[in-house]
Amino acid sequence: MHARGQSVGATAQNRLWRRRRRSTLVVGIAVVLVVATAAVVWVYGRQAIPEAGAPQPSASVATTPSRAPRVAAVTYEVSGEGRVDIWYTDPARTETTTLLNQQLPWRVELAPHAVSFVQITARRTKNGFEGQPVRALVDGVEVCNGTNVGGYMKSTCSELVPPL
Questions:
Q1: DSSP calls for 106-162
Q2: Is residue 73 over pLDDT 50?
Q3: CA gap 52, 57 in Å, rounded
Q4: φ and ψ of 70, to 5 deg
Q5: Which residues pair with 103 in a beta bridge?
Q6: Residue 137, Cβ neighbours under 10 Å: how many?
Q7: pTM strictly above 0.90
């Protein structure tokens, strides 16, 4: 008999039971977190789809005319020395353009297209405290610029481009 009146086998069984209980608790918490994450992704990721019975606006409803996006040439620049990874929005495309390990200075001129937003980000591929200033120009006029400060490896600028 053990000091408390239990056999040694009973103590080992209690330890095994506690381990299983702890493992079950950890697995349960993990399952709850996965389900909660999936629910958040589903709620924020789903597209707004009108219901079949929801009233749809008719063609006869008067709407306020909106101004068309501005048609303009966009130029992106990254100055400095070394190499950077670059991400920029191209008004003619729906996705962001990604360029890896580009030599500085770097510049791209995009043909005139309907533009409502410009954005460029440059991230240094190696640590360093040198800046890599970025800027965006619309029809030759600078609309935004940015430079990393304090040793941050990323510079970015973005701006809405109002219609004319």
A1: EEEEEEEEEESEEEEEEEESS--S----EEEEETTEEEEEE---TT-SEEEEEEE--
A2: yes
A3: 13
A4: -70, 135
A5: 83
A6: 19
A7: no
